[in-house]
Amino acid sequence: MSPSRFKERRLKFLAEMNITSLADVSFTLMIIFLIAGVSTALSRQQGIDLDLPRTTKPEPQTGAGLVISIREDKQIFIGTKAVSLQGFSKALVSQLAKGKYERVYLHADRRVDYGTIIEVLGLIREQGISHIGLTALPK
Q: What global pTM score does this model have?
């Protein structure tokens, strides 16, 4: 085999590069990122992890509203932002100024003491919110 003929064969081999595996990898990565994005978006909407109380006949939430959550350790969240009880009123005022909220949904863990719930309800009412929903799950 002459050297010039070998060079010609080698160039021909590079010209026929198969990109099928590259397309497969690209498609697989696109699916992975799509699933990760949807999963992240869903986890952000779920909010704070709580063990909500259960009742026999809960009423469905009909309108949009601001969600305030109280965890078992008495940590308070406005939306997904953690606030202290002392800074709750100020944080609530700033959150209410950002959007038009006619109602507030209070999600409290079933192990939160009644005194903490009443204290937070009072702070919410001080801001002029009278439509307050206490959230529960069906039994």
A: 0.64
